[in-house]
């Protein structure tokens, strides 16, 4: 049976472990050739070894996703080894959790760099390649798959840096979808819930593998199926969406929406604004609570 990504080439960042490794394995199982990007070359090689042992094709790439020039080498690896590129999965990430009042500049910068800038660098080079192909008259069927988070969609106590980066990624996805469709490129995002190196300390007990052998709700492979489908030709009509995935449940995360509002038809006096806000709050649909809020 032919896989749904037969003949496609995918770059997956942070694919040495956790979700990224699960994505790489699933892409390969569905016929894709995979560039396994990770700064931990031993972990990346282990993923490649697992793919090749199962009869798939993969190559290690250790480009620094926060370095614009170096990240070009990930795209070059796809073209040099496999002759094309169809999918970029931006997955790599780090956490530097701390309450906002105690957060350092270094902790802020590191998380923004890996997540938000990291989503820009390889995608930028890939888009240059795809746009060039499109302008030359070739048919392009390309995918950018970004990784947001519930923290980015609704906030998370003790994770201001991470939440800001993930919120930026969600909005970036909307922009990419609108701007890049003309070149045959779709952009979608994920807010996954799974057991990874970033969750094992905080959610180790909650996300533990069930001892009774029942369905493993937090197995990264559950999320991989969605990612691989998004990377396939079958998802060509889907763009500009953020999908939440946990276990066997898939949802679409609705974004900010403008309410009907209260319109005076003239400038509000400062003392009148409070009454207008009271009217708005009385008929609003409350947002989901910030993660960790009481």
Keywords:
Rossmann fold; 294 residues
Q: In DSSP terms, counting alpha (H) and pi (I) runs of 4 or more, how many helices?
A: 8
Query: Which oligomeric state applies?
Result: single chain
Low-confidence stretches: none
- What is the string of SSEs from the N terminus onward? EHEHEHEHEHHEHEEH
Q: What is the tally of beta strands?
A: 8
**Gross geometry:** globular
Strand content: 5-15%
Helix content: 40-55%
For the record, the count of structural domains works out to: 1
Largest sheet: 8 strands, mixed
Helix and strand content put the structural class at alpha/beta
The CATH class is Alpha Beta
Stated plainly, the CATH topology is called Rossmann fold
What does this structure look like?
By secondary structure, this protein is an alpha/beta fold. It is built from eight helices and eight strands; from the N terminus they run βαβαβαβαβααβαββα. β6, α7 and β7 (242-246) form a beta-alpha-beta unit. The protein is globular, with a radius of gyration of 21 Å. It is 40% helix and 14% strand. The termini are far apart. The chain has a single domain, classed as Rossmann fold. The protein has an eight-stranded mixed beta sheet, sandwiched between helices. α1 (18-29) packs parallel to α2. It has helices spanning 18-29, 41-53, 68-82, 105-135, 150-154, 160-180, 220-231, 273-282; strands at residues 9-13, 33-37, 57-61, 87-89, 142-147, 185-193, 242-246, 249-252.
């Amino acid at each position: 049976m032919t896989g749904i990504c037969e003949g496609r080439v995918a770059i997956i960042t942070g694919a040495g472990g956790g979700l990224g490794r699960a994505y790489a394995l699933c892409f390969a199982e569905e016929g894709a050739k995979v560039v396994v990007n990770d700064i931990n070359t031993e972990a990346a090689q282990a993923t490649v070894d697992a793919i090749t042992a199962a009869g798939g094709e993969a190559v290690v790439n250790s480009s620094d996703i926060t370095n614009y020039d170096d990240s070009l080498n990930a795209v070059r690896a796809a073209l040099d080894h496999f002759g094309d590129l169809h999918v970029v999965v931006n997955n790599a990430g780090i956490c530097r959790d701390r309450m906002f009042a105690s957060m350092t500049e270094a902790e802020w910068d590191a998380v923004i760099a890996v997540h938000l800038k990291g989503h820009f660098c390889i995608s930028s080079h890939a888009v240059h390649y795809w746009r060039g192909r499109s302008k030359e008259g070739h048919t392009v069927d390309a995918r950018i798959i970004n990784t947001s988070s519930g923290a980015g969609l609704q906030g998370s106590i003790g994770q201001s840096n991470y939440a800001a980066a993930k919120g930026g990624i969600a909005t970036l996805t909307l922009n990419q979808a609108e701007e890049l469709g003309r070149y045959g490129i779709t952009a979608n995002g994920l807010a996954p819930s799974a057991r990874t190196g970033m969750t094992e300390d905080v959610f180790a007990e909650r996300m533990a593998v069930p001892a009774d052998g029942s369905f493993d709700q937090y197995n990264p492979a559950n999320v991989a199926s969605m990612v691989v489908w998004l990377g396939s030709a079958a998802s060509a009509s889907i763009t500009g969406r953020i999908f939440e995935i946990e276990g066997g449940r898939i949802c679409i995360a609705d974004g900010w929406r403008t309410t009907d509002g209260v319109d005076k038809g003239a400038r509000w006096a400062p003392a009148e604004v409070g009454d207008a806000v009271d009217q708005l709050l009385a008929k609003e649909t409350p947002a989901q609570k910030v993660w960790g809020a009481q």
